Amino acid sequence: RVIVIPNGIDASKFSYNENVRIEMRKKLGLEDKFILGNVARFMPQKNHKFLIEVFERLAQVQENAILLLVGQGELMNEIKALVHEKGLDSKVIFLGQRNDVDKLYQAMDVFVLTSFHEGFPVTGVEVQSCGLPFILSDTITKEIKLTDCISFLSLNDSTDKWANAILQYRSVKRQDCSEIIEKKGYSQQFAANKLKEFYFECVKK
Predict the structure, then answer these.
(1) Which residues on neighbouring strands pair with residue 175, listed in sequence order?
(2) Alpha carbon distance 46, 117 (integer Å)
(3) Contact at 8 Å (CB) between 77 and 48?
(4) pLDDT (tens digit per residue) in 128-168
(5) Any residues with CB less than 8 A from the CB of 124 and at least 6 apart, and which?
(6) What are the residues facing 68 on neighbouring strands?
(7) Which residue(s) pair with 137 in the sheet?
(8) What pairs with residue 66 in β-bridges?
(9) Using 50, 70 and 90 to split pLDDT, how confident is the model at 4?
(10) Beta-bridge partners for 111
(11) Averaged pLDDT, 166-184
(12) Integer-rounded Cα radius of gyration of the chain
């Protein structure tokens, strides 16, 4: 017998808030920018190199594009060197480790995840909760698709195809999807209730 208990999030914390979006974009000095985001450790599986290549192509056709990279890791300096080599220093912002990722999601326009592989990325649940368009590699489990604002692309696809997919979301109106996430069982409360039920069943036995 198998019982699956989702790794629930506080969906209300990641619900979309237009006021927070405006505040964060102003705080970052990016009010008039088209902001891509990525939250991941700088390690081989996260495939930042391909992300930079996609962004390089995107920046060629979307002049006001900015890429926010959140996280730390062993390959950070290597990726910084790549960004410098491509002349993208003014367009790629390394934010390091942050404790306000929920607010950074609000500021972004599209979230991009180019990982070679993942388990079940909880980041993807958070991103969808705040209605942030989400483009990710098809090597990642399809179970992460909880809303309609998500697209899978192959890492074998060209950077042109990735850039065009991202650009399709330029004029998308953000909507709060936290209730959808809760109804699909990815809230902390749902996970807690499932765990409680399991414990009670064990006690009865």
Answers:
(1) none
(2) 8
(3) no
(4) 999 999 999 999 999 999 999 899 999 999 999 999 999 99
(5) 113, 134, 136, 140, 144, 150
(6) 37, 93
(7) 153
(8) 35
(9) confident
(10) 37, 134
(11) 89
(12) 18
What is the rounded distance in angstroms from the CA atom of residue 76 to the CA atom of residue 30? Answer: 23
Predicted TM-score (pTM) of the model is: 0.91
Query: Tokens standing for 125?
Result: 């649940």
Residue 24, both tokens: 């964060």
Residue with tokens 């979307």: 62
d(C-alpha 50, C-alpha 7), whole Å: 28
Distant-in-sequence, close-in-space partners of 156: CB < 8 Å, separation ≥ 6: none
- Helix (H/G/I), strand (E/B), else coil: 145: coil
The stretch 91-102 carries a mean pLDDT of 96
Task: Tell me which residue of 2, 102, 115 sits closest to 48, measured CA to CA.
Answer: 115
Could you report the per-residue pLDDT of 69-81, keeping only the tens digit for each? 999 999 999 999 9
Q: How far is CA 28 from CA 23, 109, 169, in A?
A: 9, 14, 21
Q: What does the CA dihedral 184, 187, 193, 197 come to, rounded to 10 degrees?
A: 50
pLDDT in tens, 18-46: 999 999 999 999 999 999 999 999 999 99
